[in-house]
Amino acid sequence: MFSFISRQILETTPFSAYGPRFHWLSSADIFLQELAFNTMRHFTKYEIQLLTISRLKYITSAAAHISYWASMFSSTDFTSEQMKDLVYFSRLPIATRKNLMNIPLEQRSDPARAKYFKTPIIVTSGSTGHPLHFYSSPIRQVRIRGYYRHIISELGRSFMLFETTTPTVFNLGMWNHRGLYPWQGFSFGKDMENALYRKVLFDKWGNNPANFLYTSAAYLKRLFFWSKQDGFIPSFRAIIFTAQGLEHGERDELTRYFCCPLISFYGTHETTLMGVECLFQIGRFHLVPEMNHTEIVDELGKVLSIGKWGRVISTPFDNEISPFIRYDVADRGKIEENPNCPCGRKTDFLVIEGRTTDYILLSHERQIVVREITVVLDKLLLGKAYQFQLDQRDRNKLKIRIVPTSQFTTQDQTHIISKVTELLGGALPVSLEMVPSIPVESNGKIRLFLK
């Protein structure tokens, strides 16, 4: 009975998304979405698959009226009405950021619907530095707010916060997420560079600490820096970080310093939340089939089986104004089966290895994956640097920017240059630049690699 009601809520357009005149119903809609997501925790895999197919039918049906997507469907003889299983859906071509950037927004969106709903144009570049424009549907906004209430309340129960149904959460630096949850407070990440502002903020956290901190990996590392400088360690039950990942070494160091678990949310701005890290299995993200369909494919676009590494593909269900159908998020990962997770969630795991598109150019014929360098730097700089960044905007050399700790020495500098030069096969000169900070972009990310 409850499963049926939850499916109806998730398959039906929220009341407030029918037009500007109905926006006053958004609070009721968010409440209903949260209830539906709470019930979905108990769905069987078969029920989740049925819901996934139903939601894919909805988003592809909407996309069929948009010129770019209509041409994609026509090229593969795809119609949403004929979709009976996920195999049929997988016949559609993969969409990449590069492809979509070359298509005018009006051709891959529904501008009339966007105008009616007064939908803003969103711009995202992520860590790629290549801007992509899209509209954010009112349905998408309602669903993600309901999901954030659901998942944060669930985390609250996991940390024994039974005294409240709405855990208090402080948002540090995530301006684009300001409407996703009733935050206890919000602070621009760049304000932490001001000593007077930090004193006010740290006093507030000392007198009235939030249950959780919600921030990006970049701002968390900046908080770590200033917390050590100012001699104040904030107290949270857990820290939720998003926008980028943390290497194992720096994550362990941050966990020890803040004396609380770190929990990662995985997703992209243009799609949606795709994974919530399991409390019992670090590095494994429970899939979010309530919000999107995630696939792993090979280089030819063929869907891979459980346990195999490949390109991560996402189809969010709720942006009918600017759909993203089988969108390559430019990460490499795999899906692992969830036999019986102790956290209670039944969805399979998503494991992320890293970006697939970042390469350091050595010559016209040779290149090296950026991650091969960053993994080594993470080990060499553990405890000796707060942040680092690679810069190859001049393709004839590689510069490494470092925000050093007091433990960083001239010997470390010599060793890093020697090691990275060796990894590059001597193809590029390597230099280091010590800096007080590395700029964080408006999406809460630091561009790890500039080119």
From TrEMBL:
* InterPro entries associated with the record: ANL_N_sf (IPR042099), CapK_Type1_Caps_Biosynth (IPR053158)
Top-level taxon: Bacteria
Show the SUPFAM superfamilies listed in the entry.
Acetyl-CoA synthetase-like
Q: Which PANTHER family match?
A: CAPSULAR POLYSACCHARIDE BIOSYNTHESIS PROTEIN
- UniProt-recorded name of the protein: Uncharacterized protein
